[in-house]
Amino acid sequence: xxxxxxxxxxxxxxxxxxxxxxxxxxxxxxxxxxxxxxxxxxxxxxxxxxxxxxxxxxxxxxxxxxxxxxxxxxxxxxxxxxxxxxxxxxxxxxxxxxxxxxxxxxxxxxxxxxxxxxxxxxxxxxxxxxxxxxxxxxxxxxxxxxxxxxxxxxxxxxxxxxxxxxxxxxxxxxxxxxxxxxxxxxxxxxxxxxxxxxxxxxxxxxxxxxxxxxxxxxxxxxxxxxxxxxxxxxxxxxxxxxxxxxxxxxxxxxxxxxxxxxxxxxxxxxxxxxxxxxxxxxxxxxxxxxxxxxxxxxxxxxxxxxxxxxxxxxxxxxxxxxxxxxxxxxxxxxxxxxxxxxxxxxxxxxxxxxxxxxxxxxxxxxxxxxxxxxxxxxxxxxxxxxxxxxxxxxxxxxxxxxxxxxxxxxxxxxxxxxxxxxxxxxxxxxxxxxxxxxxxxxxxxxxxxxxxxxxxxxxxxxxxxxxxxxxxxxxxxxxxxxxxxxxxxxxxxxxxxxxxxxxxxxxxxxxxxxxxxxxxxxxxxxxxxxxxxxxxxxxxxxxxxxxxxxxxxxxxxxxxxxxxxxxxxxxxxxxxxxxxxxxxxxxxxxxxxxxxxxxxxxxxxxxxxxxxxxxxxxxxxxxxxxxxxxxxxxxxxxxxxxxxxxxxxxxxxxxxxxxxxxxxxxxxxxxxxxxxxxxxxxxxxxxxxxx
Amino acid sequence: xxxxxxxxxxxxxxxxxxxxxxxxxxxxxxxxxxxxxxxxxxxxxxxxxxxxxxxxxxxxxxxxxxxxxxxxxxxxxxxxxxxxxxxxxxxxxxxxxxxxxxxxxxxxxxxxxxxxxxxxxxxxxxxxxxxxxxxxxxxxxxxxxxxxxxxxxxxxxxxxxxxxxxxxxxxxxxxxxxxxxxxxxxxxxxxxxxxxxxxxxxxxxxxxxxxxxxxxxxxxxxxxxxxxxxxxxxxxxxxxxxxxxxxxxxxxxxxxxxxxxx
Amino acid sequence: xxxxxxxxxxxxxxxxxxxxxxxxxxxxxxxxxxxxxxxxxxxxxxxxxxxxxxxxxxxxxxxxxxxxxxxxxxxxxxxxxxxxxxxxxxxxxxxxxxxxxx
Lengths: 691, 262, 102
Prior knowledge:
The complex is a heterotrimer.
Chain A: H1 8-26, H2 34-60, E1 64-75, E2 78-87, H3 88-111, H4 118-137, H5 141-159, H6 166-197, H7 202-210, H8 212-236, H9 245-248, H10 254-263, H11 268-275, H12 277-280, H13 284-305, H14 311-331, H15 335-362, H16 380-393, H17 400-414, E3 415-417, E4 427-428, E5 434-435, H18 450-481, H19 489-494, H20 500-515, H21 523-528, H22 537-552, E6 554-556, H23 562-590, H24 592-601, H25 603-610, H26 615-660, H27 668-690
Antiparallel strand pairs in A: 1-2, 3-6, 4-5
Helix pairs in contact in A: 1-2, 1-4, 2-3, 2-4, 3-4, 3-10, 3-15, 3-20, 4-5, 5-6, 5-10, 6-8, 8-11, 8-13, 10-15, 13-14, 13-18, 14-15, 14-17, 14-18, 15-16, 15-17, 15-20, 16-18, 16-20, 17-18, 17-23, 18-23, 23-24
Chain B: H1 3-24, H2 28-48, H3 52-77, H4 92-114, H5 118-135, E1 145-146, E2 153-155, H6 158-173, H7 178-183, H8 225-232, H9 237-258
Antiparallel strand pairs in B: 1-2
Chain C: H1 6-26, H2 30-55, H3 59-89
Helix pairs in contact in C: 1-2, 2-3
């Protein structure tokens, strides 16, 4: 198969769509047991073709495989195709989406077994996968945007899946509306980029960003475009200030939370920025902003997660926090770290969510961890997998989270940003001032002094967050699985391990959480083994995609001391993580009174955190009430000014008509008279010309 | 004062008066009778214009067929006196109608009189009278006096008209189609398959007499039945046949509309 | 008195045409109205024939011929319509037929 006509990509995308259509159109007519089978089979096929594509990509040694499915919009110099592309970046994403998606479909077959709307659920899930694959495999930003909106719509449908519950329906609407705010900025950024580059194609944009002249031209709009696109990402990937929908989105079924709101959709912002890495790195300011926003989100969400008692809410805030990590990585230019963390996070967070779903399933719908406890005796598989994932997210050495998180923290500590172009060695002054040697155009572009400082702040907040993450995750773990059962006897008697279709995905995901990070060992460790290819496999794999930006614009501030630096960063973060775990152990297992006393001692802080900083209420006050006020003013304006103006125009027409209607009597003779008079006028006109 | 001039004024005056009667008579029966007389005056004017064939047709078709139809209808409807309208101005619209008709008449008359150079006509005619006196011949040939519009004479005596017409026919017989081409430019590339009569042949294929000299060895005169019918079965043969269809359609339509039940 | 020229014929035709117009616009009796139309057609015929003579061109006669044919057809159909109107309204006033609005 030709590299430019790799139609397997079309199959990957098409199969979930077909599955979704079959389930959506015929689902209610087909036997009930068919829906999960059709849905899962579609994903299995899609995963198979994804594997085949990645294999083809690997064996062909090509930079990317593309497939133009349909020539869509052609106007002037602009051409938009429904085109797909798989390169080393989207290969990872497509495997995560179809692979994890398949496992979650499998899990849903067990979880949603008793739901009458099962066919609808699987239809939505398949549509979601379809849209997500469009987003990932799109060769241009328009296809990505279609997918972007598609996943938003599916997310809305799935959050409000149990729409008879008003609360859940509203959570769906909230997610949709908040995302809309982001999408608005996103599409603006997209067109700004188009305005400058004249193309929507990722490859062409990347090409422009990597060549000297066009990069300098692009530099002018890069800050605005990247920040606008980043605002779109804050909506989809739940960052400050648009993160508020994600915790509420937990109203959806748990597999949905696992698939959409942990593993795949919410990471699409990260993916998009990584995809546009060439443009992102053109703007140091935007990178600084991204890093800071990511760091603040990570820290902020982690503090809220400390006190939440709803098992899914904790995981939701944890997701927001981890997404913050990924944005730190984007911001500091460690794109590999971002994608690496995206992948490992997909494994352990999906596992955590599915584990929590298993727990909720067993608890008969109960989500409060204060009513759980001691569940490890009843649900051994769920317990083990949950524990592994908790360790992974806490950055316990040799588990997935350890590698990815440390890569990010190291990046934040050591990376700095210079705008320089090929063939020019940047000169650096520590921390505050970066000077690139004169570029070919003759102008030296320097980064803002605060950007490196922002990177350091991001590192600090990231480090603290690592500790907090370890603490709240293990608080959750200990309160759920350790100690005595705190619920009622009725519930206790029903406690059971989940069926195989639910535990199998758990085991697979826990296995991935265990070993999923082994493709990206810290460099100082790989040095001991003389850098075998597999130990840095992830970095090598992604290198072609991030080559330009990594090589010419992101520089390691410490140069030859990088290895030492990495050792220190890793060591510190591991220590902080372990400290978090031990703190949780002491506070919730050894002596539960400590937690209670701390809670009493810092009552105000606790209440603030419980109320999630009252951000929702603030938004409600600022935007919702504000909108209503504006609406009222507009209503008055509409009633008195616009309506009157419109009515006036109408009345003028009516009055003229009332006068003119006399002309139209229906009497043919009068009409004839008018005709003759008109002829006379014509004759006069002709005569006056001749004479 | 030649007899033609006297006749012209008689016919013209009669036509105007009877036309007025048609419009102003309260009883449509009277209007119809006035119209019949009017048509006779028109026929007289046609004769003065050397349109003998048309004058006959006018009397036959209009005065005979159409007006008989009108009379039939009027008598059939048999309108009572109180059902007839008063010819009086009763509304603004009727004032407008008077204004429209009068101003139309004025404007058209103004335009027409602008077409002619009255002084030139008077002068040419005076010259001719002078010539006539000098030659002492009352039938002295009077050339046409051109109007301001191309190819259009302002004054055309009968003998001048016939002479000009015969000249045209001779040119056509000689194969010079300049006159026709001026009116109907012929496409040289298209050679339509024409019926024999167009090639100057009759239906047996024997040559037809030339237009310039009829079979009676006298020339065809302008406005006779022969001269008009030559045109009707030649250049205008298709409209002529279509007229038959039109009349058929009119008959069918009239029957359908007027009949109570079909 | 002047010898008649083309101008005279045209002027007579114009006046009679205007009289016809007047009849069409003014009279309400449908039959009279119709006769006014015939008057206008005749005025046009006169114009055609006058031009025909002064151009020494017979085409005008042919046109008049066709106009007469059309006038005959029109008279047949129009009078049929008048009969129809009469059946409906019991009179032939064109003011009754004023549905040509809205």
